[in-house]
Amino acid sequence: MTMEMCSVRSGETPDRSLPRVGCSGGVYGVSQTALYNDLRVLDRFSARARFVKNETVFSEGDHAGHAYKIVSGMVRMCKHTRDGRRQIADFLLPGAIFGIIDRGEYGFSAEAVTDVLLMCYPRSQIDRLSATKAGVIDHIFAVLTEQFMTMQRHLVVLGCQSAKERVASFLVLLADRSRAEPGDRLDLPMGRQDIASHLGLTIETVCRAITELKREGAVIVPSLNQIILRDLQALRTLAEGQHRC
Questions:
Q1: pLDDT class for 16, splitting at 50, 70, 90?
Q2: CA-CA distance, 41 to 129, in Å (whole number)?
Q3: Are 95 and 69 spatial neighbours (Cβ–Cβ below 8 Å)?
Q4: How far is 12 from 25, CA to CA, in rounded Å?
Q5: Which of these, 44, 91, 154, 173, is most buried using a 10 Å CB contact count?
Q6: How far apart are CA 17 and CA 9, in angstroms?
């Protein structure tokens, strides 16, 4: 990890080179945009941190001293069991704010899927901002609600869907977060094992499901790290279970 302190002082213009929520990357709703705008007030207290691929940002149980916003790259949120198994809860794209939900200790581990650039906001400054600026608490609560709803949807995926439906749901989620359109090329920087760990499947089952989607004409697979969304509506229909009707 490398740290770069932001040199923004009171009265100076913040670094406008940093992408804003919803630009050229993930889309995480109005509440994350509003919260990020609140956090820009803390630019002079924040730092930019760079992590290389597969480096740990923080581990479950670490002191939750900062919240983070992804500027570039992808981060996975995961849990590790004592016997070495791993469950990936989510993959986060540029624009995502994470670590904001944790108090005292982080509840998940965060790892860099690719090389990533993060904005780091001190928890103490966030607490101070929340106490002095109207609306910040509401924006934090809205972001927590979005994250909770995402977890609920993922539980439905794990508990109710077939392997092929889970893979379709995963591709639709990434497509929505990256604003992909039918026919667009979707980058998959995570490996098949990561996808399997996220969907509660084996790597062989994930590969078979992708092959089935390819055979049915829903996707084109030019490489291991790219998927072309040939028929995005077919993927949505599969993800929503409407094909069963």
A1: very low
A2: 9
A3: yes
A4: 27
A5: 91
A6: 16
